[in-house]
Amino acid sequence: MTFSPELEAKFDKLMKSYPPGRLRSALVPMLLFGQDELGSITPELIDEIVNRIGVTRLQVQEVLSYYSMLHTKPLGRHHVQVCTNISCLLRGGDKLWDHVCERTGLKNKEVSADGQVSIEEVECIGACSWAPAVQVNYDFHHNVTREELDRLLDGLEKKQ
Amino acid sequence: MSDLVHLTIDGKPIEAPAGTLLIDAVRKYGIEIPAFCYYEGLALQAACRMCLVEVEKMPKLQTACTLPVAEGMVVRTETPVVADARKAMLELVLTNHPLDCPVCDKGGECELQDMTFRYGAGEGRFNETKQHIDEKQWSPVVFFDRPRCILCYRCVRICNEGMGVAALGIANRAVTSEIIPNEADHLNCDECGMCIDVCPVGALTSGPYRYKTRPWEMDHIATICAHCADGCKTTLGVRNNSIIRANNRDHSGLNGDFLCVKGRFAFDYGASQERLQTPLARVDGKLEPISWTRALKTIAAKFGEVRQRGGAFGVIGSNHTTNEENYYLQKFARQGLGTNNIDHHRTGDVITLIDALAGKGGQLATVEDIYNAPAVVVLGCDLSHQHPMLAYQLRANVRHHQAQIYPITPGPVREDNQATRSLRVDKGGEVEALGSLAAELKQAGGVVILYGDPVKGDAVRKLVDFGESLGVPVKYVALVDYSNSRGAIEMGLTPELLPGMTPSNTGGMRIGQMLASTDLDVLWVVGANPLKNRAALAGKPFLVVQDLFRTETAEQADIVLPAGSAYEKNGTVTNVCGQVQMLKKGIGAMGTKTDLDIFALLAKEMKLDLGPATPDALLAEIRTTVKGYDVVLAVLATGGAAMTGVNGPVAIDVPVDAIHSANDTMYTSGSISRYSKALTSLMEYPGELYSGKSK
Lengths: 160, 695
Ligand code: SF4
Ligand code: SF4
Ligand code: SF4
Ligand code: FES
Ligand code: FES
Prior knowledge:
The complex is a heterodimer of chains A (160) and B (695). Chain A is built from seven helices and four strands. Chain A is α+β, with helices and mostly antiparallel strands. Chain A binds chain B through residues 56-59, 61-62, 65-66, and chain B through 166-173, 180, 182, 695.
C-alpha cells in the first residue's frame, strides 16, 4: 500500500534506527504513525509492516491487543481521553468523565455519528502533577475544570 | 564458566559451576524448588514467583529461576516466609481458576494441584464470581481452556524456541491476558503437541487423549517411537490393552521432552479398523481367512519343496522390524533357505560412509553431538520435516551454545531461520558447494555433517575427504528414513553384506531385481510394501507377505500373515546415528504374531535349526557375534542408548541407484500414515510454513 511521503520518511527513519536483528523494535512507532495517518490500524497496514520489518502477524496481534492506544476501529477526528486513574480521580477526573459522557451522549470508546468525536476513559497518562488531565489526540490539557472541559468540547465542535 | 562456586542451601554445603541457576543447582542435592514458569532449556520468564527463596543479605525474596549461584551464598528454600509467599502466589493464580480437577485431564499429574496440596492454599479471600470462558479447539489435536491457564508462557516459549514455529502468542494484558493461536481461531503449525506436554496445568489438552482416562489408571511403558529413524523414547500410556497416550514422561533418552506429531499422536495406526487379525490365503483368486496353523504349514511346505528342488527364493525385509528380527530373518534366508537374495528399501548411504571412515573410529556423530557441536552442516535434507528430533536438538544447540549451522538444500528449510549461512544448490550439488564453507568450519573448531539421500557413493567419499581436510574434529550422520533402517543394513538385510557390515562376497538379487525376475519361485516380503505403486510382479512367485495391513503388496500375495507393530514387541532398534535402544512391548493385538514369532514358527515347521529365537537370546548372539554391536546390556536395559562401533573397511560396490529416501514429511510415515487417524486428520494442516504462506 502507498503512504504519504511524510509517513514514508518516518518509516524509513525508523527502519534505520535500530541495530541489526532488532528491527522489530520499530513495530510500535510504525503502528502509531500509521494509525495517525489512516485513522486506525487496518489489515493492509499490518501486512505492510509485517513485510517491512519481518515480524509475524501473531506478534503484531500481541502488541495491538496489549497497548490501549492502538486501535483497529477508526476513532473520531478528535479523540478525547479522560484520565480517571488515582491522581486524577482524587482531583475529580471521574466527574469529568461522567460529564464528557453526558455531554456527548457517547459511551467509552464510542464515536459520534458524524465521526468527529470519540471518547475514552484512560489510565494514567503521566500528567499526575497537573491532575486532572485530559488528552485530545496528542494535546494535553492540565488542571482541567468542568468549565474548561466544556470550552474544549465547544472548540472541537467549532473545528468541525 | 566451569569454575565451581560454593554455597549453602538449607544448611547443606553444595557446589555448582559458576553461572548455574539456583533452581538447577539444588536439584542434584535432592532439593526441589517449585516452579511454574521455569522450564529447563527455555528462555527465563520469571512470571509465576513460585520459586521464591530467602537469600541471606538480600532484602527481599529472590526468584531461584533467575538467580545464578554465587560464592558464599546462603539460601533457604523452605521457611515460613517462603511458604507464605508461595501460598499467596497460589491464591492469586487460583483467583479465576475453575478448580474443575475432577473432570480435568491433568488431574493427578497437575503441577498446580500438587503445589496447592503442598502449600495448603485451599482457601482464597477473593469472592468475585469466576469468569467462565468456553474451551476452544485450535486443531484436531490441540484444545485450549482459558480459565485453567496460569500464564506461565511455557507453551509460547516451547513453540517459539523449541519448535521454531512461533504459532502461539499472548493477547491483551493483566487479567484479560490469554494465549492465542496464529490463525485467529485455529493453529497452523507442526501439531507436535509440545505445548500440551509442557503445560503445567490442564489448559492445553490433547484431542486424542482427552477424557479417555485418569492418568493413574494407565500403565506406563517406556519404548521407542515406531516412525522415523531418530529414535525418540516415548512412554506409552496403556489401559485395557490399548495405547491412549504417548509422551516421553521422564524426559530421559535422546529426545528429552521432545516428540513430534508422529511420535505423540500416530501410535494409533495399530488400532486401525483395517488391521489384519487373521492370516489370509488366496482361494479362487481371492484372499480368504485361514487359521495360523494352516497358513504356517502351507508356507513351510512350499518353502521346503522349493528348497528341495533347488528353486529360487527372494526375501525383502523391513525398515521397522527389530535388529533381532532382521538378524534372524537373514539367518533364515541364508542358512535356512540357502539364498542370498535378501534386501530392504535403502534410504541413505550408510555403507560408503563406514567404508570411507575405515580405521578412523569415533567419527560417527551421536544425537548428543548434534546438540554440542560448534558447527553443523545439513546437506540435502529438510531436517525439520524428515528428522524432527535431530532438528529440535539442533535448534537447542543454537540456543544454548550458539552453534553455527549451514543448511545446503535446493529450497528454503526451517533451519535457515537460525543459519549462519544457507546455501541453495540443486540436488546432487551439495558436496561441491561445501568448499565455500571451509574457512568458517575450520574456525568453528568442530563440525557435525548430516547428509540426506542426494549424497551417496562418490559424493560421500568427497564429503569425507572435505571433512578430513579441515583439520578439526568432524563427525558424520548418514540420514536414513525409518525406525530401524540402520539396523536393516547392519543386520545383513542386503545381498552384499552379512551382519556387522561384513561383505558376503556372494551375489544376490536386490529388490528391483526380485520384482523384475521371472525366475523366483518364492518371494517373502516382511513388513515392506514394494508394490505400493500396484505394479504387477514380472514373474509368478509364491508371494508371502507379513504385515499389519492389506497393503498393495499384500493384495497380490498368496498368503498374508498379520504381524505385530513395533509397540507390540520387545527387541532393539538402531537409530539414524547408530545408537541402539530397546523396545518394550506395550500391548498385544488380537490374532497377530510378532515377525520374530512368525519366523520361529516357520523354522520349527521346516525343522530348521537356526538357534534360539527369543529377543533376549538373539540380542545376546548379536552382541557377541556382530561386529560393532558389543553394546553394554545394562545401558539398554535401563532405557539408555548405546552407540554401536561398526567400523570399515567395507569393500563392496554400493549400488547407489538403489538408495532413495521416501522423503516423508512431518505428517507422513511411509505406508503407515494412512492407517493413523491422527495423521490423516492432520493432513488438512499441511504445515504451510514451508510454502511461506503463513509468514
Ligand atoms: S502443537 Fe507444536 S507447533 Fe503447534 S502450537 Fe503447540 S508447540 Fe507450537
Ligand atoms: S496454556 Fe498452559 S503452558 Fe500455556 S501459559 Fe497457560 S498454563 Fe502455561
Ligand atoms: S522425531 Fe522420529 S522418532 Fe521422534 S517422535 Fe518423531 S517420528 Fe518418532
Ligand atoms: S493519574 Fe491521571 S495523569 Fe496520572
Ligand atoms: S519459576 Fe521462577 S518465577 Fe516462575
